[in-house]
Structures are given as structure tokens and as C-alpha cells.
Automatic annotation (TrEMBL):
This is ABC transporter ATP-binding protein. Belongs to the ABC transporter superfamily. GO terms for molecular function: ATP binding. Residues 264-316 form the CBS domain. Residues 2-236 form the ABC transporter domain. It comes from Litchfieldella rifensis. It comes from the Bacteria. Keywords: ATP-binding, CBS domain, Nucleotide-binding, Transport.
Amino acid sequence: MIELLNVSKVFGEERAVDGISLTVASGELCVLVGTSGCGKSTTLRMINRLIEHSGGQILIDGHQIRSFNAQVLRRRIGYAIQSTGLFPHWTVARNIGLVPRLLKWAPARVEARVTELMELLGLEPALFADRMPAQLSGGQAQRVGVARALAADPDILLMDEPFGALDPITRETLQDELLRLQSRLRKTIVFVTHDMDEALKLADRIVVMQRGRIVQQGSPQALLRDPADDFVESLLGGPDRGLKQAALTPVSALMQAQDQDLPMGSAASPSVRVDDSLRLALSLMLWHRRERLTVIDHTGRPIGTLSLHDLLGAPQ
Ligand SMILES: Nc1ncnc2c1ncn2[C@@H]1O[C@H](COP(=O)(O)OP(=O)(O)OP(=O)(O)O)[C@@H](O)[C@H]1O
């Protein structure tokens, strides 16, 4: 668990972070979001003491971070950044094994861990272990950066715009992989982005910052339902909010199950999977000009229907 209690950071005359309080529970994925210069990266970097806080307290599992040696603390916390920070003259394998080597793991254990992580991140070891960072695409380099952050199996992961420089498709793939990894590893993650769609997709909890302060925090659904002010509402996309909310809700939330003896779509009627989003369902209705879709399970078996009427009746 990470706790920030009334934390500030002053650079010269500027209060980059101005008295923020925040608790990130174990296993939670917390996303800090806000416009450029609002203090997101500074907040993140205070947690692993790359930047020392000027006021307040930061605790990890109940202990003040200042009670730890800064280097020891940093080796306990994974850190992935947009520019990857890979050493250009080291191979991929050597880059990933950095922290375990610093922790003096036996070479065979480091090697096994590097191979395990490369497989976990979809980087075939035989193909990539001996490559240099310059021989990687942006997406592959980001995977290496994430693998390196996970190398010593830290409980806490700090991620600063890790997918920021990627094309939308690669970015989405890596977001999906992060969610898949997180469902398995349950790390405590603080993730910084200025992209609200990324925040809505990834976060258990979103923390919106503005000029060094927290203006709102809550689940993606809670923010969409009830933005605290015009700033949060505009970050959330203003009138696009309805679609963003639909993107977060699965078809299963509103479908009418078949066993309720409701009229099914015809065999030729367009179908949507039960775990697809309501946004996709709406898009299919618009595309096919139909007010009703057949809902199928992952085997393709029809299990219910979803109508436009059901969609419009969705609770806010
Ligand atoms: N080392 C530093 N020295 C002086 N001022 C700094 C330093 N680091 C950050 N700042 C200032 O602190 C403020 C917050 O910066 P920070 O990098 O935390 O913002 P951010 O929300 O992460 O922005 P971005 O999305 O553009 O990265 C900015 O005004 C920045 O200029």
C-alpha cells in the first residue's frame, strides 16, 4: 500500500505538487491524469525518491519512505518510462536483468528470470535476447522496459506514460497486455498519463490533477457519472461521455437472456458477444440499421438479445 499524506513539492518559487493526499491499495491500478505540467510525473517520482518531497509524508506499507535507503527503495519498486531508459550498448537480456544483478541474484537465476519475462511480454527469447535496443521497434522497446521494471518481482510498479510514444494500435495492444498481466500479478501500480481514454480503460481508480492538486478521484464509472467540475468534464470528453461510459459496460449488463422467452433475432440478425462493450453494440446497431442484436457466448451460441430500448434504459 502507498500512502501520500498532504504531500508537496516546491521547485524554487513553484509548488509543482501542492498538498495532495492519496492512498493506493495493494493490487490497485491507480492512474494519475491531467494536463501537461499539473504535477503527475513529480508525484510519481517522489514515490521512489527520484525526487525528494518537500512536505507531508509518503509511506509504503506503513513505513516512511525516508526511513529506507533510496537505492534499496528504488530496487524494490519497478519503474517504466516513456523513453524506456534502456542502456543502448547493452543487449535486451542484459537490460532486463539489471535489477536482479544489482540485487546479486545468482547468474542462472537471473537468466531464467529474463527468459520468463521475455516470454511473459511476448518477446521470443531466441529472437530478441541478444538484440541491442536500437534494433527494436518502439513497441518492442516498451515491452523490454516493462519487463525490466518487473524483473525483481516488485510489489509496486510506477509507470510514467509508458505507452505514450506509440501508434494507437500498438498502444492498445500493450494496454490490453498490461491488463492481462495485472489480472495475474496484482501489482500495486501507479500509472501516469495525459490520455483520459487510457485512464478509463486501465484504472481501478482515476486521480485527476490540476495545478499540483487533486481535483477528483474515483472509479472510471464514478467520474463519468458525476464529474466534479467543468475541468474534469472536459477531460472526460464533454458530450462524448455517454459513449465512454458505454465502452466501459459489457453487453451482459443489459442483455435479455434467452431463457426469459423473449423474441430472438433471426438467424441472419447481427450478433454481439456477451463480453463486448455496449459501445460496440451501439456501433453495430448503427452500422446494420437494426434495433436488436443477438447476443452470443464465446462459442458463438445465441444466449439472448440486446435492443436499442435496453441501451437507452441503461442506468447513468
Ligand atoms: N526538476 C525540476 N526543476 C524545476 N521545476 C520542475 C522540475 N521538474 C518539474 N518541474 C515543474 O513542475 C511542474 C510539474 O511538472 P511534472 O513533470 O510533474 O508535470 P506533468 O503533469 O508530469 O507534465 P507532463 O504531462 O507534461 O509530463 C511543471 O511546471 C514543471 O516545469
